[in-house]
Amino acid sequence: MEELDNNVKQIIKNMSVGKRRYEEKKAKKNGFDSIELYIKDKLKNQEQIKKRERNKLMLEEIEKELKIKAKGKSTKGISPPQKKIDSLLQYYQLDLLGEAENLALSIIQEFPMHQFSWKVLGAVFQKTGRKCDAVDANIKAVSLSINDAESHNNLAVSLQEVGRLEEAEISCMEAIDLEHQFADPHYNLGITLQEMGRVREAEVSFKQAIALDPDYEEAHNNLGIMLQEQNRLDEAEASFQKVITLAPGLADAHYNLGTTFQGLNRLEEAEASYNQAIILQEDMVDAHYNLGITRQELGRLEEAELSFQYAIALKPDYAEAHNNLGITLEGLGRLNEAEESYIRAIGIEGRFGEAKVGLGRILMLKGKHKEGLEQIRLGNGAIIFNCDNWEVIE
């Protein structure tokens, strides 16, 4: 575990600023509280490839046994009855994933070379988070029908999920070569290239997906995020506006538009977008936080306070929210409450320089000049010594 943590730290240390920002956004989007936890999860998934899970072993054994049984059978035994195939498709489309998995395995036991069942099984594994099993099932589906563009695309997605990006890129290209008008592999190629830091190529892929399917909301959204990261905010705005036109109930799109407006200093529009995101998804903690920042910048401190309180209620260890609540309370002249907020922020994130500077200001205002000056120095990166024995305090 310690070795894994060290690997995570090294990977993050070696990231460019742009790559780190992108990974932090992906971490939030995937429900992780920090980039460290997100990268650790990705590494664990890559480790699963080497260890192989129980389902893969079972499937390999089934395949070996049934290849032997299949020898000597007539050609009419190659494919299951159409009724079973229809049921399998129906289970998957209705999101009855347990039933779909059981039926797919049952069909594979009898018909190990039935490509569609492997294809559905790969999709089920993907949806249920069994990423390594999904890779294995999708590889099998591709091997049974090398001209099936959708299978290559499915394999690309599963390879992408376990961090095998170079292979994912190849699978996307295979799918595109087989079916030029298929938008999905262009989109997935964009995601893969984006993760590899090849943003210009990723942009071309997203735009190609949109050219093939103008209503492809995920492609518009990811293009917008990428443009936003490059500070091409006017273009990002257009992408997010298109997403909202296609999916007005998508809270993330309103949030992303809000951050774009905030970057353009169009604060009233940013506020409206954050409010809409919260209406659609009340527990979107970052929308509450950014709404607080926007109201703070607009000078509406009482409303900013409420927004930060909402964010903290949803995520009590949100150090930035505690810090900005402290700034807001300080602006309202409520120094004791501001001091408590700064202390909480520092308690969560011990090296939070801005919070230490804020705490130092409060202490200075309260006449505690020595303690206040020490906090300000710490917040600005100074090293404080105990002069009696020259021990480093921080």
Please provide a brief summary of the model.
The protein is an all-alpha fold and about 400 residues long.
CATH superfamily of the domain at 332-394: Tetratricopeptide repeat domain
Distance between the termini: 27 Å
The low-confidence runs, each spanning 5 or more residues with pLDDT under 50, are: 389-393
Question: Per CATH, which architecture of the domain at 332-394?
Answer: Alpha Horseshoe
User: What percentage of amino acids are in beta strands?
Assistant: under 5%
* Computed Rg: 26 Å
Sequence of strands across the biggest β-sheet: 1-2
The level-1 CATH class of the domain at 332-394: Mainly Alpha
Structural class category: mainly alpha
Mean pLDDT across residues: 86
Give the total of beta strands. 2
Let me know the largest β-sheet: 2 strands, antiparallel
Order of helices and strands: HHHHHHHHHHHHHHHHHHHHHHEE
CATH fold call of the domain at 332-394: Serine Threonine Protein Phosphatase 5, Tetratricopeptide repeat
In DSSP terms (H or I, runs of 4 or more residues), the helix count works out at 22
What's the shape?
elongated
Helix content: over 70%
List the helices and strands and how they pair.
Elements: H1 2-13, H2 17-29, H3 35-51, H4 54-70, H5 82-93, H6 97-110, H7 115-127, H8 131-144, H9 149-161, H10 165-178, H11 183-195, H12 199-212, H13 217-229, H14 233-246, H15 251-263, H16 267-280, H17 285-297, H18 301-314, H19 319-331, H20 335-348, H21 353-365, H22 369-379, E1 385-386, E2 391-392
Antiparallel strand pairs: 1-2
Word description of this protein:
- With 394 residues, the chain is mostly helical.
- The chain has a domain at 332-394: Tetratricopeptide repeat domain (Serine Threonine Protein Phosphatase 5, Tetratricopeptide repeat, Alpha Horseshoe), CATH 1.25.40.10.
- The protein is built from 22 helices and 2 strands.
- A two-stranded antiparallel sheet has the order 1-2.
- A hairpin with a 4-residue loop joins strand 1 (385-386) and strand 2.
- The longest helix is centred in the N-terminal third of the chain and has 17 residues, at 35-51.
- It is elongated and about 85 Å long.
- It starts with a helix and ends with a strand.
